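Archive entry: two folds, one per protein. Generate the first.
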Amino acid sequence: DKDDFWDARPGLAQIRKHAQSRLVAPWAVLGEVLTDVVCRTPATVQLPPVIGGPGSLNMVVAVVAPSGIGKGGAAACSRSAVAYNDDVELVPLGSGEGMAKSFGYKVKDKATGDWNLVCKRTTVKFTATEVDTWAAIATRSSTLASAVRMLYSGESLGFGYADQEKRVIIPAHAYRSCVVLGVQPGRGGVLMEDAAGGTPQRIIWL
C-alpha cells in the first residue's frame, strides 16, 4: 500500500506533505530528494564490498509522468523541503564524453609536454527533463548509455581516445554523481530497449 510507504518514516511523510502543499507529485519530489542527498555525500562513502569491490551510491532516477505534471517543479520543491547548506552543480545531460569533461579537463605542460588532468569539481547532478533528449543524444553518440552505466557503478568515467586532450578519464570512486530523467508515458522505449546492456535495470523508476 502506498500510504504504508509514506507513513513508514517521518522523513517520507514530510516529503509527501511538502510536495502536496506545493501541488507537486510526491514521487517526483522523492526522486529529487534522494539524488540531492546522494550528491551531498562524499564519494569516499561507499557500499561495502559484499560482492567484488565497493559499491557506489551514485544513482539514476526516471520520473515518469505526462507533460505539464510538474516534473521540473519537483526539483525546486526538493530544495525547499530539505535545508541544504550548499548547491550541487546541475548540468544538462550530454554525450558520454561530455559527462567526463564535466568533472575535469586536460592541460598540456609546456615544459615537459605531458598532459595533466585538472579537476573542476567532484560532484555533478545531470538532468534531462525530456527523455527525448536522451534519444537525440544517443543517435549522435553511442557512448551515452555506457557512460551512465559506468557512472551508476562509480567506475572510471571517460574513454581512451588517442588524442590526449580528449582522453579525460575520471578515476573510479573519485566523483559523486546522479542522473535525473523526465520520462513521458510511451516515450521510455529508448531506455527499455537497452535492457541487454543493463541500462533500465540501473534506473529507479518513480
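Generate the second and append.
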Amino acid sequence: MNPHFMYNTLNSIQALILKQDIKNTNLYLSKFSHLMRKVLDVSGRNEIHLQEETEILELYLSLEKLRFGSDFTYQINIANEIDIHNIYLPPLLLQPFVENAIKHGLLHSRKEKILNISFEQKKDFLCIRIEDNGIG
C-alpha cells in the first residue's frame, strides 16, 4: 500500500477534525483502522481468499470515495459462478493496480470519476478487469 495514500487519508481525517465534523471523522478513522488491520493481517501470508482481497479493495475504495466525494463512483462485480472462498491469490495483488487507476487515470479528470472492477471465470483461469474513465 502506497505510503502516499496513508498520508492523504490522515490529512483528510485531520481536515475533518479541524472542521469539527465528528460523525465523518469517526467514520473515516473506523474505516482506515479496519483497512490497516486487514493489510497487516494478510501481509505475512502467501495467499488469501478472493473474498479477503475484495474486502480489502472495498475498504480502500470506500476511503477514496470519502476523500473524493460524489465525483467518484466504483463497482466491484463478481460473476455468480465464482466461489470467492475457493480462489486464492497473493495478498494485496490488486490494490496497486486499482490505486494506479485512481492516481493516474481518475485523479486529474474533470468529469465524474468511474471505476469498475470485475471478476469472471474463463475456463481454467480467473479474469480480473480494472476499468476507469480517466485521462490516462
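Annotation attached to the second fold: The longest strand covers residues 113-122. The CA atoms of residues 33 and 62 lie 13 Å apart.
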